[in-house]
Amino acid sequence: MVLLERLEQDLSKFFRLNDFGPDPAFSRFIPAVYEKTDLDWKREFEPEFTERFNGLMIRGGVEVGKIFLAVFPTEPILERFLEEGKRGDLLFMHHPITMECGDPRGDWGRGFIPIPTPLIRSIREKGLSIYTCHHPLDVHREVGTSLAIVEALGGNVIDSFFNECGLICELDETDTDSLIQQAEEIFDIPYVDFEGQKRENIRRIAVVAGCGDKISAMKEAEKKGAQAYLSGEIHCHIDNEYGRTRYREMMAYIRETSMSLIGVSHAASEYLVKKTRIKGWLEHRYGLECVLVPQVKWWM
Prior knowledge:
A 6-stranded mixed sheet has the order 9-10-12-13-14-11. The protein is built from 12 helices and 15 strands. It is globular, with a radius of gyration of 19 Å. It has 300 residues and is α/β, with parallel strands linked by helices. The protein has helices at residues 4-14, 26-34, 41-44, 49-52, 75-84, 117-125, 135-138, 145-153, 176-187, 215-223, 241-254, 266-286, and strands spanning 2-3, 55-58, 63-64, 66-69, 90-93, 98-100, 111-113, 129-132, 156-161, 166-174, 193-196, 202-208, 228-231, 260-263, 289-292. Strand 12 (202-208), helix 10 (215-223) and strand 13 (228-231) form a beta-alpha-beta unit. It has 2 domains: 2-138 and 268-292, NIF3 (NGG1p interacting factor 3)-like (Udp-n-acetylmuramoylalanyl-d-glutamate--2,6- Diaminopimelate Ligase, Chain: A, domain 1); 145-264, NIF3 (NGG1p interacting factor 3)-like (Udp-n-acetylmuramoylalanyl-d-glutamate--2,6- Diaminopimelate Ligase, Chain: A, domain 1), CATH 3.40.1390.30. This is GTP cyclohydrolase 1 type 2 homolog. Pfam families: DUF34_NIF3.
């Protein structure tokens, strides 16, 4: 068992939460999604979390016996946490709210989804804790989300882009089809979202976990010599006017790029670091059992 207070302080120091301001994404999206619900989120969530939008979100029992690792707080993930977790156990996620980005071969997504109020109340009643870390984890120099992808590909980082959220790496020569097959194996996904050009000789790849579906980031990577671009998302498949506009803009860019564009799903791209780096680090440091909680469906 480890005191929650110690774990909270250690994680916040390791991820340098005090060095970052409010999370650039969730400082906007959490207020926006919860103001449409009956939940008083500023009262339900920890005071520091409502200012930083990273860190301890829900405080449970004083001692942590087990840590669960996930990406999005989907209902199946939270239901499993409630079923298996005991008082004091902690769920460590990347996102504090679910993001439905859509399936390139299926339904388009709904965007950001709040945690249902009954699930929040059940988590509180059982004395469970939730900790999330978004942007500080993305850019972390030891356990960053994009860095974990580079390591899984066997690449060497040579540069960064997209405000350090993306990394450019060099690796042994490969081709588009081989890279797609490798990505499907690494991320345990049934298919990728592919656009752009098929290439025979790829040595330099741009990698950005999560929302890499930014044309400006793609152009920056291409100027730095990237021949392929691997991200959680290539297209925005959110079923609203914003998503449809972004999709049209991306299709126009695809006609002019020379890169292979490979999407592996937002959630799967950010889950990898939990599996390859964070689980072992937490188990070694604290001697606690860490349970990986993957999503049943990565494309959603």
